[in-house]
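Blinded run. Sample ID left blank on purpose so nobody reads anything into the name before looking at the predicted structure. Input follows.
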Amino acid sequence: MDDEKALMAFAALSGSTRLHVVKLLVKAGDAGLTAGEISDKVGSSPSRMSFHLSALSKAGLVSSSRKERQITYRADFKTIGNLVQYILVDCCSNNATVLNCCGISGEC
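Blinded prediction complete.
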């Protein structure tokens, strides 16, 4: 992951609603959740949720698939993993103290 993509992902996660959405989608796993389900769980209007989901999609943190009129959203685990790796490896230069704090021994 390059700096620009990481900054885009961090910006998309900077709000509590969006962070909550990503956490919900991670828990939902491969099944994902529909926009309506996400909106209900977060307590947001459908139009506002569409705005948040669009930002998360642009950052690559969530993906979507359409079946007729229903759109299901899923966490993009590869991008989330790349972001974590970016923090540990690129930003923290595999610093042993940081890795130990994360419960990781050795290099990533």
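Unblinding after everyone has recorded impressions. The beta strands are 33-34, 62-67, 70-75.
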